[in-house]
Amino acid sequence: MNMNEEKSKKSIMDYETVELDDENDALVILDQTKLPGSAELISLHTGEEIWEAIYLLKVRGAPAIGVAAAFGIYLLAKKIQTDAYDVFYQEFCRQKEYLNSARPTAVNLSWALNRMERVCTADRELPVARIKEKLKEEAAALKEEDIRVCRAIGEYGLTLVKPGDGILTHCNAGQLATCRYGTATAPIYLGQERGYHFRVFADETRPLLQGARLTAYELHASGVDVTLICDNMSAAVMRNGWVNAVFVGCDRVAANGDTANKIGTSVVAAVAQRYHVPVYICAPTSTIDMNTPTGADIVIEQRPAHEVTDMWYEKPMAPAGVKVYNPAFDVTDHDLIAGIVTEYGIARAPYTESLREIFRNAGRGAEGR
Ligand code: MRU
Q1: Ligand 1 pocket: which of 55, 171, 181 to mutate (most atoms within 8 A of CB)
Q2: Is the dihedral of CA 311, 312, 313, 317 positive or negative?
Q3: How far is the CA of 125 from the centre of ligand 1 (A)?
Q4: How far apart are alpha carbons 126 and 141 in whole angstroms?
Q5: CB of 174 closer than 6 A to ligand 1?
Q6: How confident is the model at residue 369 (pLDDT cuts 50, 70, 90)?
Q7: Using only C-alpha atoms, what is the Rg of the chain?
Q8: How far is the CA of 42 from the centre of ligand 1 (A)?
């Protein structure tokens, strides 16, 4: 559907990022590769379609990927034609591993799939048909939780800034990356509700332009004062004194606080340190991986060269055959991070202790899983 045709009827903020259409055995997502030109909902039915949608970033952002995978594995489990638990479970695990292979860095993918697997193993004595119902309930609960978690992150994040502040963000950790509010944008949206009048700077975020296509789009549509800047402009706006805080999302936080987020985040953090601007990582505990000791242990997704040389251009913008390095994420060292904002509070350095404390308070033990 063309965005202009839809404009009078619906804002982008009214769309569900990820939805289950159980009646039609479909996972319905808002195709983010089409934004901001058009808002298209697409229905995915097969494992291959769901895998490809995650790999191609039609659905993207760590929390949204997790929710999509949860609904996805439910739909795939629903199709398994057997009453024998062992046969069902074996096929469930095969499909789960397949979906899990779509993207390696965002831990929410494996976190959500593991949580769905636990539904199968915890209730193995139940009839397979009942396990399938429970899988559906768990996926729906995961989505509802995501909304609550993002709002809680927004409340804690809001305590770190004051009305009129300038906030810089990188990539899209917005509503489009979650089920509502976003993580890094949650303090901005809650501030907007309360008349804080933030001035937001959105990095365009090369090469896939999540900042320009998604963050600038959703904030602008919501009436937030947002200014789009190229990735190489963050030092200029910080040097001008226009930025009071950086809020970004994350794909995996290691136990020592090192954080993988969209490529370029570490550059922003290094620049922010130079200009004494605090950098806050907005992290649902589902994105904190206490089993990964440091950033060096995080697998960084490598993406194809054409995303750098050709994508979004009318013709290639680099010589044919030139070597391209295209990591999707980088690691921001924990000593550049002023705080990690979770749904249970704000962790401060030393993170090895404070993140454990967050999980203890959440009643989930130091392992957090
Ligand atoms: O490659 P993407 O677009 O999935 O990368 C997304 C990010 O890096 C986000 O900042 C992160 O997933 C957090 S989303 C709340």
Answers
A1: 171
A2: negative
A3: 38
A4: 20
A5: no
A6: low
A7: 20
A8: 20
For residue 257, which amino acid is it? G
Distance (Å) from CA 223 to ligand 1 centroid? 22
User: Is 251 one of the annotated active-site residues of the chain?
Assistant: yes
Report residue 365's pLDDT band, with 50, 70 and 90 as the boundaries.
Answer: low
Give the pLDDT of residue 2.
52
Classify residue 80 by burial, with Cβ atoms within 10 Å: 0-12, 13-18, 19+.
middle
Beta strands in the chain (DSSP E): 18-21, 26-30, 41-44, 166-169, 199-203, 225-229, 245-248, 252-254, 259-262, 279-282, 288-289, 329-332, 339-342, 345-347
Residue of 75, 284, 288 lying closest to 180 (CA atoms):
284
- Give the residue whose CA is nearest to atom 8 of ligand 1: 262
* Closest to 108 (Cα-Cα) out of 20, 186, 155, 177: 177
176 within ligand 1 shell (Cβ under 6 A) = no
Let me know: does 105 contact 251? Beta carbons within 8 Å.
Answer: yes
The CB density around residue 78, as the number of other CB atoms within 10 Å, is 15
Q: Tell me: the pLDDT tens digits for 1-23?
A: 555 455 555 899 999 999 999 99
Residue 274 Cα distances to 202, 306, 356, angstroms: 19, 33, 29
Best mutation site among 210, 281, 342 for ligand 1, i.e. most ligand atoms within 8 A of its Cβ? 210
Residue of 262, 282, 289, 326 to mutate, ligand 1, most atoms within 8 A of C-beta: 262
- Give the model's pLDDT for residue 363: 83
Span 172-185, average pLDDT:
98
| Mean of per-residue pLDDT scores for the chain | 96
User: Rounded CA gap, 84 and 107, in Å?
Assistant: 31
Residue-wise pLDDT tens digits, 74-124: 999 999 999 999 999 999 999 999 999 999 999 999 999 999 999 999 999
233 alpha carbon – ligand 1 mean position (Å): 20
Does 261 contact ligand 1 (Cβ within 6 A)? yes
Tokens 């970004």 belong to residue:
248
Catalytic: which of 203, 251, 258, 289?
251
Cβ atoms of 78 and 25 within 8 Å: the answer is yes
